[in-house]
Design a protein that fits this description.
Blueprint (H helix, E strand, L loop, with lengths): L6 H18 L7 E8 L8 H13 L6 E5 L2 E5 L3 H15 L3 E8 L4 H5 L6 E2 L1 H4 L1 E8 L1 H22 L4 E7 L2 E6 L5 H9 L5 E6 L4 E6 L1 H26 L5 E5 L3 E6 L5 H9 L3 E6 L10 E6 L2 E9 L4 E2 L3 E8 L5 E7 L1 H11 L6 E18 L2 E19 L7 E4 L5 H13 L6 E9 L5 H26 L1 H23 L3 E2 L1 H30 L5 H33 L3 H32 L10
Parallel strand pairs: 5-23
Antiparallel strand pairs: 1-3, 1-4, 2-3, 6-12, 6-22, 7-8, 8-10, 9-10, 11-12, 13-16, 13-19, 14-15, 17-18, 18-21, 19-20
Helix pairs in contact: 1-13, 2-3, 6-8, 8-11, 12-13, 12-14, 13-14, 13-16, 14-15, 14-16, 15-16
Length: 615
């Protein structure tokens, strides 16, 4: 018969709708405000001891919590509201100390059976959900200090290469001081260094055999600006590695950077990765008869008490790493596979070629902040003290000349290796950076505006339903059922694809509802025309109405879809949110307006002999 679907097609349509309902269901379960605790690095585990310590800290502070759970070395505490969440975060940070990352989070309440199917809530943008706000401060003094250390290392290499004898190259009071064996060499050394270090100001003291290099104010300002800009780029790369949707990373003032992360499931991991200022230095092990002024002694990072002496001169750093990935050595222990860029590979080759048989150390440098709490005028005040940890993670004999690719072994565990590889891929920070503020941020447009956005969908849907029922009666009911299915499928797609819903995205949903019912208006109008103007029977009119309206509906949706794709490709932020919901809504509306309504019409009229249609 004309208006009958085969059984397989009916079942397929119902299956699609059923899957849509399942993947849309998680959005009915609200999230709980929570605080998440993890180790500051992979080697630090969170266990029952920390759980008991956290419970005791919250009880002593008089902060009630809903639930506390421990899973995969992660401690999660749920609270009933945001105020208790913030107070709980502060109490836990003070109790657990700096070895643990205490971060704000939103804990899902979705049932396990839904999560096992991969069904999750829609990611909401900052304007709908709010998120986590970090304000980070770049250590300008450390940026200048690092520049001086790099220049001092270059000076030592240059003087050795030119066979100019020197007693010491040291950094004192923000200056590089070069003490030569003979004062007669001062002019030669100054002319030699000015070729590559022209941003420095030079001052000689012939009586002391001393040449002093100091940076000008303009040079210092340039270094500081570079440090902030480089840290901005690195933080953006790290956020991209985390896969955060619609993040905000921007400069704030002279030396601060603001990072806002909406919809992050693991804010503790985000805080740990964003704040990590880890870098690597590759140095040769010092010779036994080396000058004590040219060597430094460091402890092994995972073997307290064991030390080794390394040369001050740096072969290369993590800044020259082009790519890093996690692997396993022949003993199935984690390692990081390193690939250097051209400059790094050249430096590594030049350093290892004449030193085959010597040991090379990999020095892990991590800038941290130690937090302590004091009482001033009866109020608790948080005091942050920056400090730097340096430790050897690998000391191995150079078997042959190294180039751009090699591996680092001796890393604690797979998680630590993964985080190190991520940091190296994203790029090293040009200067240490510290968290100075962390807070949750509310919706930027206000809760009332959010409620009005949701209400607009409800009012729009209600008006469309009333119009369709009043004008098309039974066929209006078919259109309303399809419209509901369209909304469910759209929400399911947004959830399954991990798209970020913003307030403009809600506008896209409202527009989608209007365009979806427009297709049914075209179909119903075409059916009426076939009956009243062409004199076809009801069954033939239904068939002709769907067949002839299809091309018009397809043309209209394709042109709109092209516009949505262009908006997504060239737009940013809110424009992309609108384009995403509009694009997905066009796809779902095509399916529901044609297939779902046709299935209902077939069920009601396909097997009947009818004289007239209620249109």
């Amino acid at each position: 018969m004309l208006n009958r679907y085969p059984l397989w097609k009916n079942l397929l349509i119902l299956l699609v709708i059923a899957i849509g309902i399942i993947y849309a269901l998680p959005n009915l379960y609200p999230e709980d405000p929570a605080v998440q605790v993890t180790g500051s690095r992979g080697a630090i585990e969170v266990g029952e001891t920390q759980r008991r310590q956290a419970e005791r800290a919250l009880e002593e502070a008089g902060i009630p919590f809903e639930e506390i759970s421990l899973s995969n070395s992660t401690l999660l505490m749920r609270f009933t509201d945001g105020d208790r969440q913030l107070r709980g975060r502060d109490a836990l940070q003070e109790a657990l100390g700096d070895d643990y990352v205490v971060a704000l989070n939103q804990a899902a309440t979705t049932p396990d059976w839904l999560r096992s199917l991969g069904a999750n809530r829609i990611n909401l943008g900052l304007d709908l959900r709010g998120g986590v706000h970090f304000q980070m401060e770049v250590d300008m003094e450390a940026a200048v200090e690092q520049q001086l250390e790099a220049a001092a290392s270059e000076i030592r290499s240059t003087l050795r290469r030119e066979r100019l004898r020197f007693r010491q190259v040291a950094i004192e009071d923000g200056q590089i001081r070069i003490r030569m064996a003979s004062a007669d060499d001062l002019n030669t050394v100054q002319r030699l260094l000015q070729r590559s270090l022209d941003e420095y100001q030079y001052n000689q003291d012939a009586d002391e055999g001393l040449l002093t290099l100091s940076l000008s104010d303009d040079a210092i300002r340039e270094i500081e600006d570079y440090a902030v800009d480089q840290n901005l780029t690195t933080l953006r790369n790290r956020v991209n590695e985390l896969g955060v949707a619609e993040p905000l990373v921007q400069r704030s003032g002279r030396n601060r950077i603001v990072v806002e992360l909406p919809g992050v499931q693991d804010t503790a991991a985000a805080k740990r990765v964003l704040g990590a200022t880890a870098n690597l230095e590759f140095r040769l092990e010092a010779r036994r008869n080396a000058d004590p002024m040219d060597i430094e002694e460091y402890e092994f990072r995972d073997q307290p008490g064991r030390t080794a002496q390394l040369e001050r001169d740096i072969i290369t750093t993590g800044n020259n790493v082009a790519n890093a990935s996690v692997g396993f050595d022949e003993n199935n222990r984690p390692q990081v596979n390193i690939r250097l860029n051209g400059q790094g590979g050249r430096l590594m080759s030049q350093a290892t070629r004449p030193n085959v048989g010597r040991a090379m150390g990999v020095l892990f440098i991590e800038h941290k902040t130690r937090t302590r709490y004091e009482r001033e005028n009866g109020e608790r005040v948080e005091v942050r003290e920056p400090y730097t940890e340096r430790g050897i993670i690998s000391l191995a004999t150079i078997q042959s000349e190294l180039g751009q690719s090699f591996r680092i072994t001796g890393i604690g565990d797979t998680q630590e290796a993964s985080e190190l590889a991520l940091l190296l891929r994203a790029g090293a920070l040009a200067a240490p950076i510290y968290f100075v503020e962390e807070r949750t941020i509310g919706p930027s447009l206000g809760q009332r505006n959010i409620e009005m956005g949701v209400t607009s969908i409800q009012i729009g849907l209600a008006l469309v339903v009333l119009f369709m029922l009043a004008w098309y009666r039974m066929f209006g009911i078919f259109a309303c059922v399809a419209l509901t299915a369209n909304l469910v499928l759209l929400v399911a797609l947004l959830s399954a694809l991990g798209a970020t819903l913003t307030l403009p995205g809600i506008a896209g949903i409202v527009l989608t509802l209007g365009m979806a019912v427009d297709a049914n208006v075209l179909i119903n109008a075409r059916i009426k025309e076939e009956i009243y103007h062409r004199g076809l029977s009801p069954q033939n009119a239904i068939h002709a109405g769907y067949e002839k309206a299809f091309s018009t509906i397809l043309d209209a949706n394709i042109t709109t879809l092209l516009v949505a794709v262009i908006l997504f490709s060239i737009g940013t932020g809110p424009v992309k949110g609108f384009a995403v919901t509009l694009s997905l809504g066009l796809l779902t509306s095509m399916f529901t307006a044609i297939m779902v309504t046709r299935m209902q019409v077939n069920w009601v009229y396909g097997k009947r002999r009818i004289e007239r249609l209620p249109l």
